[in-house]
Structure formats: structure tokens, C-alpha cells
Amino acid sequence: MTSAVSNSTTTMMFIRPATQAYFRQAANSCSTIATATRGGSRRAIVANAPALPSSALASVGTSSSSSTQRRGFADATTGSPWEKFTMAPPDPIIGLTEAYLKDDFPDKVNVGVGAYRDDSGKPFVLPVVRDAEREINLENLDHEYSGIAGCPSFVDHALKFVYGENSAPLKEKRIAGVQTLSGTGGLRVFGEVLNRFGHKHIYVPNPTWGNHIPIFTNAGLEVRKYRYYDNESCSLDFSNLIDDIKAMPEGSCILLHACAHNPTGMDPTLEQWKEISNVAMEKNLLPFFDSAYQGFASGDARKDAAAVRMFVEDGHKIAVVQSFSKNFGLYGQRVGALSVVADTADESQRVVSQLKVHIRPNYSNPPRHGARIVSKILACPEKTNDFVDQCMGMANRIDGMRTTLRKALEDLGSSRSWDHITKQIGMFAYSGMSKDEVIALREKHHIYCTLDGRISMAGVTSNNVEYIARAIYDVTDKK
Ligand code: KET
């Protein structure tokens, strides 16, 4: 066995010049840190530590000796490999739940994350999901690995759910897909595959779900934005949206929210979707639909798939990522699917093979339980009907809360217009509140929503709606 010393020395010889430069720079700041620590201002100095170049990260990650790694990160004084790890900011959405849970104010409200609550503010498990689980439990199934592409029957059902039972390309096997770690996992895998096959950038709407940006950046893509929403009129900025699509380089990938746009709650009309489809076709774009709320826009999952189905009928070769977190209430089960429409069955299988190449070293294969639940429901017409009713029930409750919240704000005599709350659809109200107002809402009233003023209507209930309205009125009108 070679000694750790000689091992680490050998490994150091293979470290790339960028890494060596980082180590030198880091070593310099280490001595500064050591001095500054004694002077009590460690934090600021640590924050100035040089960013590790990605080429350096690659070298560190693959070096054969742990002593090399220690040497790379270690502080001269403490010897800790974690010395240079500064505290990262909390996640803008999930971090709100963490803060909410720590808050001991009795009337606190979490309208941050898009997770459905029943009218008593409790997480809601769809009764049809409970039924399916009972049946699954009786089957005494094993816990073997899934295949890399997940459960084939789940994927079949998921594809029928979004493309439609009668979709011609589905019947011709020109559509194929894989099970993913919910919507997020599917977005990341597709981002990586795009990057691998030559895409340098992706277009996302402005604004979009905040996590789209780090997902695609981490997948190696430059994230570009197209105009989507007009803050003045609180509505879709359609003419600028079309102009921006026309200006995209040929062949670009464009991310579209299939329905219930997050965070704005404003979707194109069917006529506007048609125009988007036409312009996308002229520019030979690759439309990539993020379908995270199918069923939550209109309450009817079939209607909510209209844009996806229109694009397929128009002859686009699209990709779709689906999440079953919201519509089936399976948030923590991480159930999703990623699929593509190709020219031939052979082509669709080739794409799937590449998706698998990215999944395997990433998380190997997806979890089974949630996929079994969705399959069980969608395989049975009765259960599917129950699902449709229960999903409709969730969408209707949210709709009712929109009307109540808007009316409560109007009754309080708010000087602002709150029309948009009832014009918008899906889980969120994009309130138009400023960052300062959102912070005041949190600090004075213990109401947690995202800094862009997005309120998850799924967390608004008959019990807290009045409190929320008064608080919003307080921070917007009375400030
Ligand atoms: N796409 C969109 C548009 C989206 O809003 C979410 C989740 C996802 C994908 C990912 O869902 P998954 O659970 O990975 O299937 N949005 C909510 C939750 C979150 O931020 O993770 C939200 O915006 O609150």
C-alpha cells in the first residue's frame, strides 16, 4: 500500500493549472482569514474567498486521495475541510416553510409553497389515493429496484393522461418517455440531455417558477428569458411574447408552462396558443412543456392538456415533463414523467435510451410507491372518475377562495384593484405586492408568501382568508 503522503503527492501532480491557481489564492485568503478571525471579522473575509472554478471542482472530485481534498479545502488554522463553506441563503420557496414552522405565532399562515390544503388548512390526501394505497398494500409487493426508466405501466398511463388516449403519435409509438423524480427531476434530466446534444441555451418565460433557472443552469444551459407578463395591466404580455419568440435563434428550446402558469396564473387563450404554435413552427423551435398543474387550471385534466395536444396535432416534435405532485397530491412521493414526440418509433426509443444514460449516474432509478398509486388509479375507469371529481374539488375550493379574498379586500375599501386575483387560474395569485410589502406581511402578520408577491391560494381557507385580507390591506393601503 502506498503511503498517504506519496499518494497525495502523486495526485497533486495531476491537478489542473486552474485548480492550482485556486489553491494558491485560497491559501492566501486562508492566512487573511486566520488573522481576521482573531480580529473578529471572519465572516466577511470568508465570503470573499475565491470561487472554485468548475474545472477545479472536477479535479478535486476525482482526485484519488482524501488528503488531497483536505489540503484543497482546509483552513490553515482549523484544518477543517468545511472552513470555506459559507452559509447559503434559504430556498426562496421551500425556505418559507422552514421559517413558517419555526414561527410560534398562533395565527401564522403559509401561502408560500404550492401545496394544496383542505379548508381546515390540513394537507389533503385524495380519497382515491387512499383507496389505491389500500389495494396496493394487500398485494404484498416487493421493494426491488425499478428499471432506469421506471415503471413501464406508469409511463403508459402518464402519457395517455397528457397526450390523450387517442393520440395518433402515441398509438404509433412515436411518443416515448421515462418515469422521473417528479417534475424537478425530469426538468433536470432533459436540461442535461439538451446540453449534451448541442443546445447552449433555453428560453423560459419572465417570470417563471424560480427553480427553473438553477435547474437549467446546473444542467449546463444558459437561461434566457422571453417576455410573458405585463405587471401594469396584470395580464399576459402577448404581443411582446410573440415578438420575443420571433427573435429566438432557429432551433432554440423554449420552455412553456402547459397550464396554470406559475407564478402569474395567466395562460394564453387557445387562439393565442395557436399563434405561439405557428411562430414556434416557423422558427423550428423545440417546445418543452412543463406540465405541473394538469387539472388545477380548469379542474378538468383533459382540458388542461389542450396546449400540449394542440402542439402535437400541429406537428411539433415536443418534449413534456409531468408532475403528479399537485393534481394527485403526491408531493413527497416524487412521481413524474418525461416524454418526447419523435418522427418515428425508433427515434423515440433512441431518445429514451439517452435519457436513461443521464438518469443512471444521477439517481439510478426512480422510487416505486407513488408511481404504483398513479397507475392503479389511471388503470381503472372508476378510480379515474373519482380522481377527476376530487381534483375538480381542489380546483373549485381554490376558485372560491379567490372570490372571497378579492371581495374581502374590496370590502375593506382597498384603493388597489384586485380583479386579477379572480382572473388568474391555478394554484397561485400573483398579487402585485412589492418585496417590501411581502416582508411587512411576514414580519407584522406572520404570513409567508414568496418575495415576488405570489400567494399560494391553496393555503387560503375559510378560517384565514379574512385575516389574510386585513393583513394585505394593512401592508398595501395603510403603510
Ligand atoms: N414545474 C413548475 C412550474 C412548478 O411550479 C413546480 C413546483 C415544479 C415543476 C416541480 O414540481 P415537483 O414537485 O418536482 O413535481 N412548484 C412548487 C413547489 C416547489 O417549488 O418545489 C411551487 O412553486 O411552490
Outline the fold blueprint:
Elements: H1 4-13, H2 17-39, H3 42-47, H4 54-62, H5 66-73, H6 94-102, E1 109-110, H7 127-138, H8 152-163, H9 168-171, E2 175-181, H10 182-196, E3 201-206, H11 212-218, E4 222-227, E5 229-230, E6 235-236, H12 238-246, E7 253-257, H13 270-282, E8 286-291, H14 301-304, H15 306-313, E9 319-323, E10 335-341, H16 345-363, H17 369-378, H18 381-411, H19 419-423, E11 428-430, H20 435-445, E12 447-448, E13 454-456, H21 465-476
Parallel strand pairs: 1-12, 3-4, 3-7, 7-8, 8-9
Antiparallel strand pairs: 2-10, 5-6, 9-10, 11-13
Helix pairs in contact: 2-4, 7-17, 7-18, 8-17, 10-11, 10-16, 12-13, 13-15, 18-21, 20-21
The protein binds ligand KET.
GO molecular function: L-aspartate:2-oxoglutarate aminotransferase activity
Biased composition (Low complexity): 56-68
Family: Belongs to the class-I pyridoxal-phosphate-dependent aminotransferase family.
Fill in the keyword field for this structure.
12% strand, globular, PyrdxlP-dep_Trfase, alpha/beta, pyridoxal phosphate, Aspartate aminotransferase, aminotransferase
Structure commentary:
With 479 residues, this protein is an alpha/beta fold. 49% of the residues lie in helices and 12% in strands. It is built from 21 helices and 13 strands. It has helices at 4-13, 17-39, 42-47, 54-62, 66-73, 94-102, 127-138, 152-163, 168-171, 182-196, 212-218, 238-246, 270-282, 301-304, 306-313, 345-363, 369-378, 381-411, 419-423, 435-445, 465-476, and strands at residues 109-110, 175-181, 201-206, 222-227, 229-230, 235-236, 253-257, 286-291, 319-323, 335-341, 428-430, 447-448, 454-456. A 7-stranded mixed sheet has the order 2-10-9-8-7-3-4, with helices on both faces. The chain starts with a helix and ends with a helix. Ligand KET binds at residues 93, 113-114, 182-184, 209, 211, 257, 262, 290, 292, 323, 325, 331, 336. This is Aspartate aminotransferase. It comes from Discostella pseudostelligera. It catalyses: L-aspartate + 2-oxoglutarate = oxaloacetate + L-glutamate. GO terms for molecular function: L-aspartate:2-oxoglutarate aminotransferase activity. Belongs to the class-I pyridoxal-phosphate-dependent aminotransferase family.
